[in-house]
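Annex B.
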Amino acid sequence: MDIPTERPANADEKQTSSEMAITITACVLVAIVVFLRYLGRWVLKRRIDTGKGKRERVYGMDDIFNVLAVLTFYGLAIAVFMAIKRGMGTHVALVLYERGLQGFSDYNQAVFVCAIFYNTTLGMIKLSVLSLYMRILRGVQSQKMLTVVWVVFGIVAGNTLANVLVAVFGCWPIKAAWDVTMAAADKRCVDTNAFYLGNAITGVTTDAVVYLLSIPIVKPLHMDNKTKVQLMATMLIGGFAVVTSAVRLGFMPALLSDPDATMAMGVPMNWSVAEPAVGILVSSMPAIRAIRFLWRRPGDDSYGSGAVQSTLKSRNGGHIQLYDIKSEGAKGGASHLESGKVRDDGDSEEHLVVGNGFTGFSSISKTTDLEITYTQR
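Rhodopsin domain-containing protein: predicted structure tokens.
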């Protein structure tokens, strides 16, 4: 590699300002998202402690993978700042003129670290989303969808591990990945072009699979349509992560064939920073939604508190007589329930009940989906 003896005429052409701006913006965005995510977790825990939420664990594996994703993202950001300082976004001729071959090797070393953190961060984000799906599916009777999620989880985990290992051990000795002064006979490297293209393609594919899984998972959930649409829209914002992966893929062929490596890397690296930042945002949206309970009045969540008149209804027509069923020695019973409807469209589940806790009850029962609403007097 020839070292220029004069300062290149295009030395003032730089992309460093935009690279710094995008990286700093992404770091700030991730910091805000992390604050809002765990504020939402705190609100949810407080809600459970006051008896207004389901008695379930607030934190789960999705939070562990999220923390790992955030830590590795900031590792990526630090490596990007190092790459910018060492010449990314400027012409390679300027890097060689000012710093020589050692300076270019230092730049390659920073990019090498970027690749490790980038692949790790994306993997942790996808595993966080898949762990969230498992939490959603925990109470679902059918195990088919859960099995699908576990299969995708295994594929993503394996793909992430393979990408990170190739990024680290793509050359032997490892130093050969960035040291341009090492003779070709003294090193062995994988086909870098094939690795980066394959990495980008598998990234787009797994992104699409992970985020599209939200449709069959959320759609069957028993919740009102408004909440269901909001939750599905929240998850499908992840489509933007797929777009960023695809855009980055589009830059890869030109990058790998461009001799002006330091300048050509500028724009793809911007997308490499934006992609995980958006992924962390998307994977945190369901947790952030819990913040809405901060502004909810206590009485809004207290079913039956202060309710004088109530209506019991189902989705379709058909009336049902409501009885106050008491076991032997039990006190109290249903109150303020005046009318009701039961779905008679054949979509109910019928099963044999044996020994359900009430004396003399051992018969065929019919369960229906019921919705209870209350009105104040």
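Residues 126 and 210 are 7 Å apart (CA to CA). Confidence is low (pLDDT under 50) at residues 301-377. Further annotation is deferred to the next reporting cycle.
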